[in-house]
Structure prediction request, 129 residues.
Amino acid sequence: MVCRHAFGDVPHPVPESAALVEDIVRNQIRHLVVQTTDVTNLRGGRFMNIEDVIFLLRHNKDKLKRVVRYLTYRDMRQKAQKQMGAEEDDSAEMDAAKSQLVSCSKKRKMCFDFLSSPDNPSGTEQFHN
Prediction:
């Protein structure tokens, strides 16, 4: 396996710098979760969902693009896992997997629909890379 390193990355980073990066990422995620909880409460929802996260990131195109790319890859990975498992499973479990896959695709479509709403006139063309 070939590892590529850029921007000063090394195979074995200094523990202090790794801890610093980990702390920064943890704080950013914590902040995003708190903000998402606030948005969920404002809309009167009981649970956070992907639309709340997308709403928060709507002005930061780079982060939004990463979230959409992650959702796409996650759906592709789940689809591949379902196909691999479908060869071994019986038909009842295959039907359950298909319904779950359809719901994942619906969630992703809902995200793209949200991004192409009138409030976001730039559309989703930039997120299909």
